[in-house]
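Lecture notes, unit on protein representations.

Consider one protein chain, 171 amino acids long.
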Amino acid sequence: MRRLFIALFVMMAMSFSASAQKIALIDMEYILKNIPAYEMANEQLAQVSKKWEAEVQVQLEAVQTMYKEYQAEQVFLSAEMKKKKEDAIIAKEKEAQELKRKYFGSDGELYKKRESLMKPIQDEIYEAVKTLSEDKGYQLILDRASGVNIIFASPKIDISNEVLVKLGYSK
């Protein structure tokens, strides 16, 4: 009798913990494409990136010009002059590489600019998703646009449009 009571108790406890969980999906790419501030930020980043790429390219072209001049004059230069020209070319090339690293490195200006423009948008989306999750009782919200392998998902559980509405962009 006691075993039966314990088994019944364990089964009831398991049934409470195995209650259905509410899951939803969002498509972050879709959401971002429908936020004008994101598109403007991307355009601004593209313009800044293009400007900085041009600066770096000018530096690299200057190095190429110096090298070509050096090759043309090399026959007429003394060993000391050759060394000076070679050092100047190397210094200019290092300068160009440093400029490239400054703008496009892992903690470069472009990364900082992207972070300053995108973080507020991402935080706003996160807060909207969090609010929807709390309001509608979702235990899990997955991003279909991320690398998660979702083979099939019912469109009924996609709340991307609800997130856009929550953000003030009605769809």
